[in-house]
Amino acid sequence: MALGEVLFTADQIAERVAQLAAEIRRDLAGRPLTIVGVLRGSIFFLTDLLRQLGLDATIELVEAASYGDRTVSSGQVTLRRYGHFEVAGRDVLIVDDIADTGNTLAAVRRAVEAMGPASVRICVLLDKPARRQVAVDVDYRGFVVDDVFVVGYGLDHGGRYRSLPYIARLAEET
Ligand code: IMP
Ligand code: MG
Asked: Can you list the domains of the chain with their CATH numbers?
């Protein structure tokens, strides 16, 4: 698989991340906030968003893996939490790279809600609504994408392309 066209440049991403941070700040500033980052795809978005937010948020991390191959999602998601994972009584913002089938975000939200937070919101850089299998309330979304596989800015394909500073579509090799 080769790289296809660039969908979002580094500048476009930075501009949108700043806008999302401003929205989130308006809603959540002044309250005890915990950001829950979903590894590994969210790492670029997570750190850029945190810098733009400028809020004194605590950070928790969860690793999500879904069984089955990517095109036929089994809907089964395993989560691994890091450290204490304290969210009780706090506003939680779950941050992930992309809402695709919705299975991952639904599982993360369920796990977080079971831990007694004051509120739970979801923020994704990309939203692919055409592939949704499970409804998820996305509160903040960067860009909507068509049903194409995208890489870069944290998103990978079999471990490749994750560190690109922009987002491109993956092209079929001919
Ligand atoms: P879900 O299908 O919504 O559970 O998404 C599971 C995970 O698949 C996401 O968090 C991403 O890490 C990954 N994923 C979904 N669509 C893409 C894509 O187009 N490119 C790269 N990773 C993707
Ligand atoms: Mg992910």
From this structure: 2-171 (3.40.50.2020)
Using CA of residue 87, residue 90, residue 96, residue 101, what is the dihedral sign? Answer: positive
Residue type, position 17, single letter: V
Its pTM stands at 0.94
Exposure of 72 in the CB half-sphere (CA atoms within 13 A): 1
CB 52 less than 6 A from any atom of ligand 1:
no
Query: Does residue 78 register a pLDDT over 70?
Result: yes
Q: Which atom of ligand 1 is nearest to the CA of 77?
A: 4
Residue linked to tokens 């191959």: 69
- The number of beta carbons lying within 10 Å of the beta carbon of residue 14 is 14
Cα R_g (the chain), whole angstroms:
16
Q: Which residues are catalytic?
A: 100
Token digits for 141? 């979304």
Express each pLDDT in 147-170 by its tens digit: 999 999 999 999 999 999 999 999
Ligand 1 centroid to Cα of residue 126, in Å, is: 10
Structure tokens at 65: 């893996």
User: What is the 53 CA–ligand 1 centroid distance (Å)?
Assistant: 24
pLDDT, tens digit, 9 for 90 and up, residues 10-43:
999 999 999 999 999 999 999 999 999 999 999 9
